[in-house]
Design goal:
The protein is 40% helix and 2% strand. It is elongated. The longest helix is centred in the middle third of the chain and has 27 residues. It is mostly helical. The chain starts with 66 loop residues before the first strand and ends in an 8-residue tail after the last helix. α1 packs parallel to α3. The relative contact order is 0.09. A hairpin with a 5-residue loop joins β1 and β2.
Length: 182
């Protein structure tokens, strides 16, 4: 039996068919009431979702009480909202810069290794070099962990301060291919 819809899968037209929209009914369809008894297809405002009497978001007669958002997700007290897209992008860019700083400390520090023997013992130089290499990653992780409960701008300020403090000066002054005057 051909209903006229059999060929729709083979064509692009019909995408603007109003019967395909979510929340609309075709003519003559039975209205289906939602959980509150209201007609879901009508324009009535549905009351917010609620838990049955005696139940909380974690179980019956629990001390921890949460609530249900309009989209049906359960939110518990103390839950932190997820990071926004701009904040995630900003953190990704800052993490990339910190990674570049780590590479800059490796390259710049190894370029100065021969000339530093006059100032510091070889063991002391190696310890300082690898502490400098680890510093950007340590700053990023520490600033991120310690500012979890703070506002986003506080985290960004601490991460930007780390970029100012941890500039890889040996790489900037000598570069990757520069020579050191002896």
């Amino acid at each position: 039996m051909n209903t006229g819809r059999d060929e729709d899968a083979l064509r692009w037209d019909g995408d603007d068919d109003p019967t395909l929209d979510v929340g609309t009914r075709t003519a003559g369809a039975d209205p289906t009431p939602d959980a509150s008894g209201h007609d879901a297809a009508s324009g009535e405002d549905a009351p917010p979702l609620a838990l049955p009497d005696g139940f909380t978001a974690v179980g019956k007669d629990s001390d921890t009480v949460g609530h249900i958002e309009a989209d049906g997700t359960v939110v518990m007290p103390g839950d932190k909202a997820p990071l926004s897209s701009p904040m995630l992008i900003t953190l990704g860019i800052l993490a990339g810069v910190y990674l570049l700083f780590t590479i800059g400390w490796i390259v710049g520090g190894l370029r100065l290794q021969g000339t530093a023997q006059f100032l510091v013992s070889p063991v002391g130089y190696q310890v300082a070099l690898w502490l400098a290499v680890a510093a950007p990653a340590l700053w990023f992780v520490t600033a991120y962990a310690l500012t979890r409960a703070s506002k986003s701008w506080v985290r960004i300020v601490w991460l930007l301060a780390g970029l100012v403090v941890l500039v890889p000066w040996p790489f900037i002054m000598v570069g990757a291919v520069g020579t050191v005057a002896r």
